[in-house]
Amino acid sequence: MGELVGCYLMPHPPIIVHEVGRGEERKIQKTIDSLENISQEIKQKRPDTVIVITPHGYVFKDAVSITTLPSLEGDLSQFGAREVKFKFENDLDLAREIMEETKKRNIPIAEVSEELIKKYVLPKKLDHGTIVPLYFVTKHYPDFKLIHMSYGFLPFEKLYEFGVAIKDAINKSDRRVVFIASGDLSHKLTPNSPNGYTPKGEVFDKTLLQLLSEMKVEEVIRMDKDLIEEAAECGFRSVCVMLGVLDGYEVNAKVLSHEGPFGVGYGVAKFDVTGYKSTSLLERFSTIEEDPYVKLAKESLEYYVKYRRPMPVPEGLPEEMYRRKAGVFVTLHKKGELRGCIGTVVPQKKNVAEEIIRNAISAGFEDPRFPPVREEELPEIEYSVDVLMPTQPVKSKDELDPKRYGVIVRKGFRAGLLLPDIEGVDTVEEQLSIALRKAGIRPDEDYTIEKFEVERHEQRVF
């Protein structure tokens, strides 16, 4: 049985390499000292294989990637240090086992082979996100095979699950493995940052490192996405994968250093496995709350994708779904982005159940803004169902509240609807402007306004 002997968060600024920094690296000496300590520790652990996940390798929007070239090599010539070069044997057996475990979980994965590199004219050299951490490791311990992988822009929960697939593959092997999450923290940490500055950069760095030091895994995976985006980091997704690799283990975490004199945050941390847990957090991340409205929308779309016909109304739903009549909107999201939204203002079917079944199909196949949903997308689709309450005429805009009320604007046969509590729509003016554009009504025309509330049912992952 294989063994995970160590996990590490390591930054990758090329300037930290002496042949690149030529003295400037002394400004981040704490980081250098931490990486040296980690590398000496790795020497003592004598791993057979080192896995590096990097944000600067083959990064795809909709898939993680793993390189299957027989040998992996690269240098720092683009940073003026051609003499810093490495060549590693790829641990292809373990790499392929990781791919198999990943596919079992329906996580999209790209195999970066010779054929793929030629087809898309990709670089063959290892990236600096891999070379810089290994520059320190190989000074103390060069006798290992390498596995090179990159995260994709998948939901954080999916990246965590990818880490679990890696863990399972390690356990099935006979390898002693070290896992390195390569990544820098905020790139907007100080006013002298070349990427601009935001005070939230420091908030992001401190928050993430504090949560990691306490192994508050759920809070990491559910960190504020706006904060993550504004921080302009490149290591958070590497961390999500690493935490999945540690799923089911008791872990002693320690942040060794953090500094950012060049405006980019460099955090170094180690995660020592000390035992085993009886439960896996993956179940909490991948369990969908059984809201019957959401569940029916999900089952309806999946049934239609598979059989190309609407599913019959199932038995066992709450009685209200058989006798209640109301307009319903079904909204689909994928990776946090809208993927379809179709609904009915007034009921078209004999009950809410039939309304949901019909509108879930419409959201997936008839929203003109998007192509039809494909089968391979289904595991990534998130659903919400809004049941509309009766509309009320509005005499004054003071009666509106975009968080509480949706709106319908009308002029003759033209009408536009906007649901309440939509992300990014914070004012009445924004709400009405969008609704008017949808209806093709000019703001200076004489139009009527109606408002309505909704009963919102959302897919919740916890």
From TrEMBL:
Q: Could you tell me the superkingdom of the organism this chain comes from?
A: Bacteria
Domain AMMECR1: start-end pairs: 288-462
GO molecular function term, any single one: oxidoreductase activity, acting on single donors with incorporation of molecular oxygen, incorporation of two atoms of oxygen
Enumerate the CDD domains for this protein.
ED_3B_N_AMMECR1
NCBIfam families this protein is in? Answer: AmmeMemoSam_A (TIGR04335), AmmeMemoSam_B (TIGR04336), TIGR00296 family protein (TIGR00296)
HAMAP family (alphabetical): AMMECR1 (MF_00645)
Q: What is the protein's name according to its record?
A: Protein DEA61_07680
Q: From what organism does this protein derive?
A: Caldanaerobacter subterraneus
Supply the source organism's classification. Answer: Bacteria, Bacillati, Bacillota, Clostridia, Thermoanaerobacterales
